[in-house]
Amino acid sequence: MAAITHGADAVYIGGPSFGARAAAGNSFEDLEQLVRFAHPYHAKVFVTLNTVLKDSELAEAEHQVKRYYEMGVDALIVQDMGLLKLDLPPIALHASTQMDNRTPEKVRFLQKTGFQRVVLARELSLQQIQEIRQTCDVELEAFVHGALCVSYSGRCYMSYASCGRSANRGECAQFCRLPYTLVDADGYTIVRDRHLLSLKDMDRSDWLLPMMKAGIMSFKIEGRLKDVSYVKNITAYYRRRIDAILEGHPEYKAPSIGKTILFFEPDPERTFHRDQTPYFINGERSEMVQLATPKSTGSFVGTVQSVNHNSLTYSGEKELHNGDGLCFVDVQGKFDGFRVNKVEGQRVFWNEPVKGLSVGDKLFRNYDIQFEKMLAGKSAERRIYLDFELLEKQVQLVLLATDEAGTTVELPIQEDRQVADKPEQALQNLQTQLSKLGNTCYQARNVEVKTSQVYFFPNSVIAGWRRQIIDILMDQQRSVETHGHASLRELSLSQLPEAVNVMNAKAKEIYQEFGFEQIEDAYEKIETSNVETHNRASLQNSILMTCKYCIRHALGACPKQKGKTEPIFPIETHGHASLRNKPLYLKTGRHTFRLVFDCAKCEMIITTPEAKS
To answer: Domains of the chain, with CATH numbers?
Structure first.
């Protein structure tokens, strides 16, 4: 609801189960409340049903979909193709990014199977998006902000292989956020104890118009498991950026209505923020990993000028406040932080001893207490402009209300008419009473009276009209927009994508009907009840992650670059030769993974140690 108030045209949200964030489920009652709140703004509600499903779960999934349709949910975001074989109501289907949607062949396949929208893989460049747009006319959605998975979405099995928690079942243990030591086949350490797979957060706010021109019609902000201040801040930031584009480009139009008025200045660096990367959108491999920590680093404050036992001084223009959270990376590359106890000008005091802080360290604020207090209160409102008309239709007096989208409802007036003794005063009173919409999402813009004579009505009567016509308008907005499904038997494809993550018999049927000869079972179908968890990875396909991000490139050892790129972190003895000439391994705790590099595709593959190149 905060996202909608701060300008979102749509929100996506998990239901009671089967969402890709198992810890972020919501009740049917909560979803019904959200739909009622969203639809007057013409904002959409998309429910995530985007895990792979067991055969035993399909009946419950079908039941949930029917509940969503009945309450007015606008679309489902799904991963499992088996859902298409169920008895679903005519609700729109969006193909989750968990389906690994990164080729024209895959997107065409999804369009032909009945999907209205496809959420593209985060790794695609503008050129790749354009190529997909040119080959299909399905709606295309792309991420523009938030946390990044290092693996192609839907193609990460590291968590399940290592501890039995499946990313494709909503239970990812986030192995990409752990610290790793990079070693070669001889045991030499190249990089020690760094977050080599932990990516910065995506920020494509400077690429919105080029993405629109490339064919993207919906921008997606990653926000589940984030707090409300993040949702408010980031939504407001993108609403403002997009509105600025719409003002200068009339060929584009927002799909929702209502003007958002902000009571704060949005700034992505002042809530959860892991630095930023445009992440391949420009076709380049810019620095995108945050080695020191997977946590929020916030915004740069300044440079440490002096340090003593209970305080520091810093140089910088940003003003700090008591209660702020500050952080830094020490000379050893370790991340640490502290809470500000007191601020006196450029001197900052703390209560607990701070270790590792040195003159010259860069200081960041990852908890902005004043900003958080501001966002904790009323930080925005969103109002829909409404025009009223009182007119005569033959002998019937009718009150009309029209919202910004042109939706008009009418209320027949049953009360007896009495010609006003004071016409001007009666008109003014009518306008005043109809404009009292403070407890609703509406704001009166125009009130016109088009009757042959001016009539007098008591305030209580006019207030009753106002309540009735708003109720009629709200009911009108709750109507469900339906979308039929394509018939599978009537469709054919000249080129088939991969068929992977097949968890149930219904999904397998879909692929068989389209002529797929090679259908890959979901990684999670392996039974491990009699095997120790840490041996799980050796039970089947050894590929655990497929990534466009490449450690060897990040460390300046890409064979294609031939030394043109600088390493993002100092490499230890023997490191440079090992990076190019020997097998590489990542170690964390008791887990070891092998890196395989497919330079033809510019991909890094993370496998079990036993895998061969």
So the answer is: 2-148+200-270 (3.20.20.70), 167-195+540-613 (no CATH), 290-367 (2.40.10.170), 383-477 (no CATH)
